[in-house]
Amino acid sequence: MRLFGLQTCDTCRKARKALESTGNTVEFIDVRAAPLNAETRQRFLAAFGEALINRRSTTWKTLSDDEKAMPPLDLLAHHPTVMKRPVIETEHDLNLGWDAKVQAALLP
Fold first, then answer.
1. Is residue 83 pLDDT above 90, yes or no?
2. Can you name the residues that pair with 27 across neighbouring β-strands?
3. What are the domain boundaries of the chain?
4. Buried b (16+ CB within 10 A) or exposed e, 8-17
5. 53 neighbors 78 (Cβ within 8 angstroms)
6. Of 54, 62, 82, 94, which sits most exposed with the smallest number of CB within 10 A?
7. What does the mean pLDDT of the chain come to?
8. What is the pLDDT of residue 8?
9. Strands, sheet with 2-5, edge to edge from the N-terminal-most edge strand
10. How far is residue 102's CA from residue 105's CA, in Å, rounded to a whole number?
């Protein structure tokens, strides 16, 4: 299982801790330290659409109007922290966020 997010994100830390406490091996990818490649950005955008862009994030609020108007793939390439977090990749699925639905799907 791979968890894409930010090392400093409380939600990412909670998700990682919960997943590991149930015996899952979690590979953590900090998108600030290791930005997503074009293929991964495209795959995530295909799976989640516009929901992948976190329009309530601090990063989003600091963007110019021109940056906010960028295509999502370009925006994520230039500002990886605008991605909603976490994205959790399992052998068969991609999950976005850490809400009750995602927890029910991934935790026993």
1. yes
2. 2
3. 2-106
4. ebeebbebbe
5. no
6. 62
7. 96
8. 95
9. 27-30, 2-5, 87-89, 94-96
10. 5
The reported pLDDT for the residue numbered 87 is: 98
- Per-residue pLDDT, averaged over 6-35, amounts to 96
The first and second tokens of residue 44, run together, are: 């995530």
Q: What is the mean pLDDT of residues 60-66?
A: 97
Cis peptide, bond prior to residue 72, ω within 30 of zero: no
pTM above 0.90, yes or no: yes
Q: Are strands 87-89 and 27-30 parallel, antiparallel or unpaired?
A: unpaired
The DSSP-derived string for 15-77 is HHHHHHHTT---EEEETTTSPPPHHHHHHHHHHHGGGGB-TTSHHHHHS-HHHHTS-HHHHHH
What is the C-alpha to C-alpha distance for residues 5 and 12, in angstroms, rounded to an integer?
A: 6
CA–chain centroid gap for 62, Å, is 19
Q: Is the pLDDT of residue 88 over 90?
A: yes
Confidence check: pLDDT of 108 > 90: no
CA distance 39 to 23: 29
